[in-house]
Specification:
Layout lengths: L3 H9 L3 H15 L4 H25 L2 H8 L2 H25 L4 H11 L6 H9 L4 H27 L8 H31 L1 H25 L8 H28 L4 H11 L4 H11 L2 H7 L1 H22 L8
Helix pairs in contact: 2-10, 2-15, 3-9, 3-10, 4-8, 5-6, 5-8, 5-11, 5-12, 6-15, 7-8, 7-10, 7-12, 7-15, 8-9, 8-12, 10-15, 11-12, 11-15, 13-14
Amino acid sequence: MANPVSAVLSKLKIDAYIIALFGMVVLASFLPVRGQAAEVTGWVVKIAIALLFFLHGAKLSREAVIAGVTHWRLHLTILAFTFVLFPILGLLISKVGVLTPTMAAGMVFLACLPSTVQSSIAFTSIGRGNVAAAVCAASASNLFGIFLTPVLVGLLMNAHGDVGGWDSIKSIIVQLLVPFVAGQLARPLVGKWIEKHKTLVGRVDRGSILLVVYSAFSAAVVEGLWRKVSPLELVVLLLVCGVLLTLVMLATMWGARLLGFSKADEVAIVFCGSKKSLATGVPMAGILFPGATAGVLVLPLMIFHQIQLMACSVLAQRYAARPADDEA
């Protein structure tokens, strides 16, 4: 006899993974990790991310990696969406007047940030996109963001401060490039095993995203997320973030098609070009702005981060369900 809950979800076409994502938000709201437990969770997330990159490195052929590195049109397209279109839209939204001045400034700061790393690659993988290009594009976005984000923030918000430095570069190298290269080197030993266990990579992809959602939202709740904004302001902020994400996702999707990219490249462009990094944004805010101001300015980023994970999970499933011959 079929499970009645599964039958209902099947009829409603609700992905159980979407429910799991919402469950992480609810769990973090009521039972956020604090203190030493938060530190342990942070290390677990880092390990999951490293494992994710190792598996991607071991799964991809050398030819695919070389093609991803040399795909300069795709990388320039993603960087243009991340550091040109996003800041323009963020600045325009801040001038509309529907947000408080602080929230409007937070939207501009959000728009100047680089793309995410782990979730961009994970969603690209789930959506059967160009994972090699996504790895390179996400890395490039974060490396360039170390220098471009402070400049953009300074130009658009008149903020000052030194952001990034060797610690940021080292973090990207350690968490992304080293495991990926290690996977490539280990491919002759583990490549065939991974090909036989493709579901393992998918589980690590999804599991890492669930951990990131829970960890990030826990940090927001511990910092007093629900005390810093009224319900009405939260609703307006949710709507504005949703509008911004929708505009950028449509622009990346149709832009990729107009520029003649393949479907696999389109998936990478959409997921790398429409997302903003919470992991990079929060430390940058702490350096660029005073403590009290930084805590409020990152609220739009925290909201946008959750919305983008939910929306991208749905879109990744739609991309994954496309016919095998729909690649051109």
